[in-house]
Specification:
Layout: H1 2-8, H2 10-34, H3 38-50, H4 54-63, H5 68-100, H6 102-105, H7 109-119, E1 124-133, H8 134-147, E2 152-157, H9 164-178, E3 182-187, H10 197-205, E4 209-212, E5 232-236, E6 240-244, E7 261-262, E8 264-269, H11 273-288, E9 309-316, H12 323-333, E10 338-342, E11 346-347, H13 350-361, E12 365-371, H14 377-392, E13 396-400, E14 404-405, E15 409-412, E16 416-420, E17 424-425, H15 426-431, E18 434-440, H16 442-456, E19 459-462, H17 464-467, H18 472-484
Parallel strand pairs: 2-3, 3-4, 7-14, 10-12, 11-17, 12-13
Antiparallel strand pairs: 1-8, 1-9, 2-5, 5-6, 6-8, 9-18, 10-15, 13-19, 15-16, 16-18
Helix pairs in contact: 1-2, 2-3, 3-4, 5-11, 7-12, 8-9, 12-13, 14-18
């Protein structure tokens, strides 16, 4: 019937075709003007040209930053408002630490200065830092620290599941709230889809203040890429912090050895908690659109020095400069001996990729540890497309076979370590709220270095020769996935 109609009125079909072509031209212009990332621009252009109608739908669902104005007006203004209240302390702490610890910072001075100038992040002295292995090492420590809280507990998580660990932590948070401790809980509405209304209701009725960072109304139409809160942060009494790759979920304590999860978290006690507090309160105000009464107890940490770690925080998000991406590249280019990187997803931006290749070709021992099999076929294929290029440039690559390695760590030489929430992919380094702790301490570096060598026992190193023997059809699929990597 439709065919007969257009046969009778062919000029209508021609008109629709012209309108569609004009629409595609205007949409292409919008994509070029609105999308800063070149790879993402090309990917969206390919979609609307080679997938008529479907490509346009995909772009409007996943590509348009509908919340951009909200992020870039309200949140930045609130960030600045909080910063003004603590700016004097940040400046004083940073420059005093720089003056007194020049030797420990060494060749990473450029990285430290960049983070301070780009995101107000101070270098803080006298912190105790402790590496926590897997959920088994993290959660018992978390429960002990939270049990002792007297003023406030702040949590911010990408994934919070309604399971054994999730309910055990919820019970403790409710208990502390009933004791009069202020408990605030931020969660990502996409990542924490399994938290469930009943658990959220129980927490709220138990006195826990809570909010999603970015509310999702229609999950099926949600923009899963842009502006997810991927951070994992706990702050207790403005003095103790947990951060790293481990979400609140039973799978991280490995109840099933067949589905083994390998991860790393960091416990900090000391002045480094100051900046984590700044990040949390910035997101809390953005999410709730309410400004709490911020007493000195949130920021006025005056205990004696807890340890000998210098710590600086690299944080990224839609409201900040790409601090994690550029500080990572800066640290990599500062390497003289070794770089050990562990990441579950390796789809790097060009800046970081080129820095890694340059370091390896200059004689630095560069090693990359990734899962042999990822949790996404397309993401895994996109990552595979980079490995031949890395192998050609002297980077050693290790496939972790014991389970899924989810840690996000990097060590450079003997003194620099990074532990945090950011994967080495486009989403983490350009779109999500992320946070990495940069630790200047030989003991922490040595611990992570030994851990890397232990994990190598559960790895398979790949060679350039064997990698080139993969089937051409597989290589083609990997490069196709790489073209789409800015969108995944």
């Amino acid at each position: 019937m439709i065919k007969e109609f257009f046969d009778q009125f062919p000029y209508i079909l021609v008109g629709l075709e012209v309108l569609y072509l004009v629409g595609i031209i205007f949409l292409a212009g919008k994509i070029i003007m609105d999308t800063k990332n070149t790879g993402k621009t090309l990917a969206y252009l390919m979609l609307i040209i080679f997938l008529p109608v479907i490509g346009i739908i995909i772009y409007f669902v996943f590509g348009v930053n509908y919340r951009k104005n909200k992020f870039y007006s309200f949140k930045i203004a609130r960030n600045e408002q909080i910063y003004q209240g603590v700016s004097a302390y940040i400046r004083k702490t940073h420059y005093k630490t720089l003056k007194n610890h020049t030797e420990e910072i060494g060749q990473f001075l450029t990285t430290v200065n960049y983070l301070y100038n780009a995101s107000y992040s101070p270098l803080s002295p006298g912190n105790h830092a402790e590496i926590l292995i897997n959920g088994e090492g993290k959660f018992e420590k978390v429960f002990k620290v939270i049990e002792k809280a007297v003023h406030h507990i702040h949590l911010e998580y990408y994934i919070y599941d309604n399971d054994g660990i999730g309910n055990r932590l919820a019970d403790l948070l409710i208990k502390k709230a009933e004791e009069g401790v202020i408990v605030r809980f931020l969660y990502d509405d996409m990542g924490s889809g399994k938290i469930g209304r009943k658990l959220l209701k129980r927490l709220k009725e138990g006195g826990v203040q809570l909010s999603p960072v970015n509310k999702i109304t229609f999950r099926l139409l949600a923009n899963r890429v842009n502006y997810r809160d991927h951070r994992k942060i706990i702050i207790v009494d403005g003095a103790e912090v947990f951060t790293g790759g481990i979400n609140v979920s039973d799978k991280y304590i490995n109840p099933n050895p067949i589905q083994y999860w390998r991860d790393v978290h960091l416990y900090i006690k000391g002045e480094a908690a100051f900046y984590f507090q700044f990040l949390f309160l910035s997101n809390w105000i953005f999410a709730t659109e309410k400004i709490p009464e911020i007493s000195k107890l949130y920021f006025d940490y005056k205990n004696k020095e807890e340890g000998n770690s210098l710590i600086q925080t690299a944080a990224s998000g839609p409201d900040t400069k790409p601090s994690i991406m550029l500080s990572t590249a800066s640290a990599v280019l500062s390497a003289r001996k070794r770089i050990y990187i562990v990441t579950p997803y390796f789809i790097p931006v060009e800046t970081v990729l080129n820095a890694i290749k340059q370091a390896a070709l200059s004689g630095v021992d560069v090693r990359l540890m990734v899962p042999k099999s990822g949790d996404s076929m397309v993401v895994n294929a996109a990552a595979y497309s980079y490995y031949e290029e890395l192998l050609e440039n002297n980077v050693r690559i290790f496939f972790y076979k014991k389970g899924f390695i989810h840690a996000k760590t990097m060590i450079v030489d003997d003194n620099f370590s990074s532990v945090g929430t950011a994967n080495m992919d486009v989403r983490s380094q350009e779109l999500n709220f992320e946070v990495n702790a940069l630790v200047f301490n030989e003991e922490i570096n040595d611990k992570l270095q030994n851990l890397f060598h232990e994990d190598m026992n559960d790895c398979e190193e790949i060679s350039l020769e064997s990698w080139r023997k993969r089937p051409k059809t597989k290589v083609f699929f990997e490069h196709l996935a790489r073209l789409l990597s800015p969108l995944i």
